[in-house]
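Archive entry: two folds, one per protein. Generate the first.
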Amino acid sequence: MECPRCKGVMVKDVFEDLKDDTGSLHFKGWRCLICGEILDPLIAMNRETRPSPLIGRARKKFATQMG
């Protein structure tokens, strides 16, 4: 698998989450050997379903407000 961040090699790994409130202490995922990026099914799902940015609410640059 190729890392979406740096295009490095990702390997399967087992991670521990001691603060998980679902009762599961371990989860399986992928870890990049180059940059350390971690992916699991939940992270991948959240990245696919994130809301689109609100273009109309973006801050204007100070220079455009002055001119």
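Generate the second and append.
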Amino acid sequence: MELFFAIDTPYLDGFLDELRLLYGRSENTIDSYFQDLSTLSRIVGASRALIDLDEEDLRSAISLYAIDHAPSSVARLQVTLRAFFQYLIHEHYRASSPMEKIESVRAPVNLPEVLSIEEIVRLLECCNLETQRGMRDRLILEFMYGSGLRVSEVVSAKVDDIDFEQGVLRVNGKGSRIRVVPLATSTRKLLQRYLFDGIRSSFLIGRVRREEIFLSTRGGIISRQYVWQIVVKYGKAAGIQAPLHPHTLRHSCATHMLNAGADVRTIQVLLGHVSISTTQIYTHVTPEHLLEVYRTSHPRAMEAI
């Protein structure tokens, strides 16, 4: 990383170490925080230390940043600054945060498309289970929709993470947080065929041993880009018109569960969200489900006029 913090380096290093060691943030997240602070340092000038900035300095810098950046980027910058100055307070480098009176920019919430249950069925049935690649691809799709996994969690899942007796998968999620997710009965049956009928081993080349469940045709680890490609590929084969990406299946999983009566807390645990507020944004209630619940639960909903 290129440093722009000749004066703030000790404070920056401590801040990044806290994110990494205390809060378990991923390296990508830590790098994003670093880049945000680096950008702000360039805006205010090399002669100014971030630790000494006041409210007026930050308002001006954020306004300049907002000229060339989207609201979502400005919102992220503010999150970074709040966290940084809270760290300085905790470590007694500052008595208060200059961000206290600066209103947060609300980033627009862009929810991904949600497939209907019928579309999900069509998507899964497009995989040819008579072929090795079709079986593997079907399981990849099942992991994302059936268990709500992120694409990064799918490609890193290992054979030893599967517990067939309990019907669960051990997942190494964001920030190295471990959680256990259930596997659908159909997924478990396909997994047993895939693992024990020689389908997975057919992807292995020579004597190379791999721990990952899903392998490429060259015997290596599949990439996230490849998972994106198969989602698009089977989406087109299923005649689905909406733009698709791996997150669509994860979001569809959460939405279908919510519509079927699952509580938000359960979905939060399944998806591996640290904050329930993330889940509340991520899972939205459809108008149809809202009307159904209202009609069956509100005491005056069905009362004659």
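Annotation attached to the second fold: Residues 1-7 have pLDDT under 50 and may be disordered. The domain at 9-90 is CATH 1.10.150.130 (DNA polymerase; domain 1).
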